[in-house]
UniProtKB/TrEMBL annotation:
This is Vitamin B12-dependent ribonucleotide reductase. Residues 884-896 have a biased composition (Low complexity). One of its GO terms (biological process) is DNA biosynthetic process. Catalyzes the reduction of ribonucleotides to deoxyribonucleotides. May function to provide a pool of deoxyribonucleotide precursors for DNA repair during oxygen limitation and/or for immediate growth after restoration of oxygen. Residues 1-24, 863-914 are annotated as: Disordered. Residues 51-142 form the Ribonucleotide reductase class II vitamin B12-dependent N-terminal domain. Its cofactor is adenosylcob(III)alamin. It comes from the Bacteria. Residues 739-843 form the TSCPD domain. Residues 1-10 have a biased composition (Basic and acidic residues). It is an enzyme of class 1 (oxidoreductase). GO terms for molecular function: cobalamin binding; cobalt ion binding; nucleotide binding; ribonucleoside-diphosphate reductase activity, thioredoxin disulfide as acceptor. InterPro entries: RdRp_reductase_class-2, RNR_2_N, RNR_lg_C, RNR_NrdJ/NrdZ, TSCPD_dom.
């Protein structure tokens, strides 16, 4: 991106900038990363027209329709739908409405390039053009994305609000409290979220100057909550997102801790009384405090008191004197109990946060944004951008750290430019942001990257790679910030905080030195990160830094889908089998494409890869998958399911990355329903010990106001009516006997060295009616058992039990003999029963039925390797080919182009009709509940994204990314 010396990007500039930014350099010389001189990025891709129609599946209503939108053919249906519905501007049906991704990217990128030229960021006009083309290429190929407000607002007639994250301030006056309500509303309207700390407001145990008793912060939360509940942000794209923080030494802290737990009990009582208390239900609005995330800000003093089981003082807001003494361990238990009961409050570690604060001379960090990743000064904001880590995975499964660093430099430059033209909802927020220029670069798809490279999420190797990448990202961002300071000046507040800022940079560099790498990939990334921090410190000593903050790890909900990411933010994979929409309509359930890549990396033979992927397609997990070694199970562990990652596995991953972030990490640690209050206490306590800045937990099924099932609510609405007795009609199955003479098929087989014979008799219309089994060289007892089993199955078939039911019940039974067979259609069997019913399925079930169960013939598997589809019908084949094209590379230049891998076997099958998202597919396949709300816009079950939720169908989020 810039001129290089010994393969390290450098910047050409004139005089070095002073710490105050008084003297400026010449400007950046931008090098090409992906683009070709004389060729515009738009000319390198194939474009196609699509119709975007979005319906609410529950009501059947069409909520959005725009036909003929233009996107690259490599973009998935989901990505194009979300961009069209969320980010295209202009009234639908008018000439002003955007209808092409080109228009959207141009609207944003040209604004950035114009501002960069105007404010002296580039050495020449040619450098500005290269910057424009590189930014366009990276966005076009889903290498990174800006946060949603950029897409909402930049280049439109609306205020140019680019920040997604805001921190407000409120003082102990009525004017300030009412202004808080107003400022939150303005922020929500602009498509963003806000957080604030209420600890300056005096408690309900203190007196007013008039002699009366103060209301306390919890009472004022009611008004703000009601206001937030009525506002949809970003043009009705999502509900308002907010965070409320209270210090642990506030006298009203116990009331604050129990606030949402008490409301949850109210929800339970109202639901049982027949009211509609689902999220979005007509009666849920009567419940308070549901529109905010709550967090308690704990100090090291409090945590040490918990550790030592001593008392702790609650202090008056005005004087600071202790007005009540409590047992610290008891309060900590109440915090954990409330989180156990309703997932709130989360916890923020105040001293850790402020120990990494670059601007302590200006003020303390007292609060965060709603998702807890942005932590900075009061009345400030942060604009975010996230890189798609899978775009930097080479064909040899190594991480392209050098290209990653160059893209970080490109993106952080663009993010800083945006502050030059950005508008802000309040004057104080604008003033603070322009003086301190807080940025939040981050990434998505970490879970997919770890799986593709053969790393378990909860493993030392996985954490070493994640830490190295995070360190490289932040070190490179701050190095570029120091270079920018030499061109356009350090941030205005730098002089006042110079020593503190340098101290935090040294802390980051020291943490990088403490990383212990395990493999060649980690070492290569870490070596580049070490060089980045060395340069960051040396250039920063001379120039200062352009930005007070540089990095966070955000939820990346909507923009994650825009980039076609499998996983959001720092999260592991949600599940191994995904829901996928197809071009031209229809949907499929598809095995995660990184699974076969990981298996081949471990050296599994192609036949074994095929068998494992088929097993995953049917079961949704890898436990007992044929041929998969147990020591490799951890690579395929997910956030939910049969081998869900343990809570401390999430905490350890956060702890590995936290020292390399200016802000914090948006993440909720999922815990099983069986988790105890003591388990939650341990997670909160260990997170403090490990140096996290913030944490939230979610225990499965802890929230009642969640649309897990609406059957009870519907039944409560029905009026009971008395009807006259009706005749009782008794329905019994009727046995359909086979004719005396019927066609039959005899099959000999071998499973794990044991021989057997199967004779299957059919009705004249080819329906299976009987099965006889004989196992050779076996004792008479087993022969008798098999005869009895054969009779039982045959009678069941004749009474109308579908063969499909038997296949579902008896395939995948695991017992000896098991192993290789002599049947080319069923290469491995987990037992005799597994083989027998797979063979019967191949012989007697229609293709669609057995394909949905992952059972295919050798001919069909060969066809799939050649064409990407098992389907024998041409139009159905086209659908699956379309699916494979969406999942595969486009053939255009990529940051780290992956070599075409062998086609992934058994990855696709038609999705059940009732399934509309990966969360719903998980529920259907696993028979377990995915704890998540339904989307307000389209009725589809959302999935976790950081400490928020995101809708896979329309991109709506419950947060601020």
């Amino acid at each position: 991106m810039t001129e290089t010396s010994h393969d390290r990007p450098v910047v050409r500039r004139g005089k070095a900038a002073s710490a105050t930014g008084g003297t400026r350099g010449k400007g950046l010389t931008i090098q090409r990363i992906f683009t070709t001189p004389g060729v515009h990025p738009y000319d390198e891709v194939t474009w196609e027209r699509r119709d975007v129609v979005q319906t609410n599946w529950k009501t059947g209503d069409t909520v959005f329709e725009q036909k003929g939108v233009e996107f690259p053919d490599s973009w998935s249906v989901n990505a194009s739908t979300i961009v069209t519905t969320k980010y295209f501007r202009g009234a639908v049906g008018t000439e002003q409405r955007e209808r092409s991704l080109k228009q959207l990217i141009d609207r944003v990128v040209l604004t950035y390039a114009r501002a960069g030229k105007q404010h002296g960021y580039f050495a020449t006009d040619e450098d500005a053009e290269v910057f424009e083309h590189e930014l366009t290429w990276a966005l076009l190929h889903q290498v990174f994305s800006f946060n949603s407000p950029v897409w909402f607002n930049v280049g439109t007639s609306a205020p140019q609000q680019v920040s997604a994250c805001f921190i407000l301030a409120v003082d102990d006056t009525m004017d300030s409290i009412l202004n808080w309500y107003r400022e939150e509303g303005l922020i929500f309207k602009g498509g963003s979220g806000a957080g604030l700390n209420l600890s300056r407001i005096r408690s309900s145990k203190e007196l007013l100057s008039s002699g009366g008793t103060a209301s306390g912060p919890v009472s004022f939360m009611r008004g703000a909550d009601a206001s937030a509940g009525t506002i949809k942000s970003g043009g009705a794209t999502r509900r308002a997102a907010k965070m409320v923080v209270l210090d642990v030494d506030h006298p009203d802290v116990e009331e604050f801790v129990e606030t949402k737990m008490r409301e949850e009990e109210k929800i339970r009582a109202l639901r049982d009384a027949g009211f509609d208390m689902d999220l979005g239900g007509r009666d849920i609005t009567s419940v308070q405090y549901q529109n905010a995330n709550n967090s308690v800000r704990v100090s090291d003093e409090f945590m040490r008191a918990v550790e030592q089981d001593t008392d702790f003082g609650l202090r008056a807001r005005g004087t600071g004197e202790v007005i009540e003494t409590i047992r610290a361990k008891e309060l900590f238990h109440k915090i954990a109990h409330a989180a156990w009961a309703c997932a709130d409050p989360g916890i923020q570690y105040d001293d850790t946060i402020n120990d990494w604060h670059t601007n302590p001379e200006t003020g303390r960090i007292t609060a965060s944004n709603p998702c807890s990743e942005y932590m900075s000064l009061d009345n400030s904001s942060c604009n975010l951008a996230s890189l798609n880590l899978m775009k930097f995975l080479r064909d040899d499964d190594t991480f392209d750290a050098q290209t990653f660093a160059k893209v970080v430099e490109l993106v952080i430059t663009a993010m800083d430019i945006s502050i030059c033209f950005a508008d802000f909802p309040t004057e104080s927020i604008g003033d603070t942001t322009r003086k301190y220029r807080q940025l939040g670069i981050g990434y998505a798809n970490l879970g997919a990257l770890l799986m593709a490279t053969g790393h378990g999420y909860d493993s030392e190797g996985g954490r070493a790679l994640a830490a190295s990448i995070t360190s490289l990202m932040t070190g490179t961002a701050y190095r570029r910030s120091a270079e920018l300071a030499g061109v356009v000046g350090a941030y205005e507040g730098y002089a006042r905080n110079q020593q503190a800022h340098k101290r935090v940079m040294r802390k980051h560099a020291a943490a990088n030195d403490a990383v212990r790498t395990l493999h060649a990939m980690d070492k290569d990334v870490h070596a580049l990160a070490t060089k980045a921090w060395e340069d960051c410190l040396s250039i920063g000593d001379a120039n200062g830094w352009r930005n007070a903050q540089a990095s966070v790890l955000a939820p990346t909900g909507t923009i994650g889908f825009m980039m076609d990411c499998d996983t959001t933010g720092i999260e592991p994979d949600f599940s191994l089998v995904k829901f996928k929409k197809l071009v031209g309509g229809g949907s499929m359930q598809i095995v995660n494409q990184t699974i076969p890549r990981a298996l081949r990396r471990f050296g599994y033979a192609e036949e074994t890869v095929e068998a494992i992927v088929e097993y995953i397609a049917e079961h949704g997990h890898v436990v007992d998958a044929p041929g998969l070694r147990p020591e490799h199970y951890e690579v395929f562990d997910c956030a939910m399911g049969e081998r869900a990652i343990a809570p401390m596995g999430h905490v350890r991953m956060m702890a590995a990355c936290q020292p390399f972030l200016s802000g914090a990490i948006s993440k909720t640690v999922n815990m099983p329903e069986s988790a105890t209050v003591e388990d939650i206490e341990d997670v909160y306590f260990q997170s403090w010990k490990l140096g996290l800045k913030a944490l939230a937990i979610y225990r499965d099924n802890c929230k009642v106001g969640q649309p897990l099932s609406d059957g009870k609510a519907k039944s409560a609405d029905k009026e009971e009516t008395v009807q006259a007795p009706e005749p009782v009609v008794e329905y019994r199955p009727v046995r359909k006997r086979l004719p005396k003479s019927r066609p039959s098929r005899t099959t000999s087989f071998t499973v794990g060295g044991a021989e057997g014979y199967m004779t299957a008799g059919s009705y004249p219309d080819d329906g299976l009616g009987e099965v006889f089994l004989k196992l050779g060289k076996q004792g008479s007892t087993l022969a008798g058992v098999m005869d009895a089993f054969s009779i039982a199955v045959s009678i069941g078939l004749q009474y109308g039990v579908p063969l499909e039911t038997y296949v579902q019940k008896f395939t995948n039974l695991r017992f000896e003999p098991a192993g290789l067979t002599d049947d080319p259609d069923v290469r491995m069997a987990q037992s005799m029963m597994d083989y027998i019913f797979r063979r019967l399925a191949l012989d007697y079930l229609p293709f669609e039925t057995r394909s949905a169960m992952g059972i295919h013939s050798a001919e069909e598997r060969a066809r799939q390797l050649d064409t990407g589809s098992y389907e024998p019908v041409e139009d159905e084949t086209a659908d699956v080919e379309s699916l494979q094209q969406q999942a595969a590379p486009t053939g255009q230049q990529q940051p780290a182009p992956a070599a075409p891998a062998p086609a992934a076997p058994a990855v696709a099958a038609p999705a059940p009709r009732e399934v509309h998202s990966s969360a719903e597919l998980y529920e259907a396949q696993q028979g377990r509940t995915a704890d998540a709300p339904l989307c307000f816009s389209c009725g589809i079950k959302m999935r976790p994204a950081g400490s928020c939720y995101v809708c896979e169908g329309c991109g709506s989020t419950s947060g601020c990314s």
